[in-house]
Write a structure and sequence with these properties.
Number of strands: 0
Organism: Limimaricola litoreus
Protein name: DUF1289 domain-containing protein
InterPro entries: DUF1289
Distance between the termini: 33 Å
Helix content: 40-55%
Structural class: mainly alpha
Strand content: under 5%
Number of helices: 3
Pfam family, one: DUF1289
Shape: globular
Radius of gyration: 12 Å
């Protein structure tokens, strides 16, 4: 079974309080994402990033870009996280 891709969508511009404007990850989170290689760990990490995006707001473009990456790999992305 193919693994879930990284939440990075290839923008990599750190502005919003040291968060990437493409995926919301910090540089430290990007480094950690490379360590989450197993299925459950990767899915949990992507869900964490999605929750972060929901709280921060302004990352609606990410959903479509990430869904496209997942489709290329033949995997289902995690369910979207709703802001509280």
């Amino acid at each position: 079974m193919p693994k879930l891709p990284s939440p990075c969508i290839g923008v990599c511009k750190f502005r919003r309080g040291d968060h990437c404007i493409g995926c919301s990850m910090t540089r430290e989170q990007k480094a950690l994402s490379k360590l989450a290689k197993k299925g459950k760990a990767r899915r949990a990490f992507v869900t964490l990033v999605m929750a972060q995006q929901a709280v921060m707001g302004g990352y609606r473009h990410w959903d479509a870009a990430y869904a496209k990456r997942c489709a290329k790999k033949g995997v289902e992305p995690p369910e979207p996280v709703k802001a509280a």
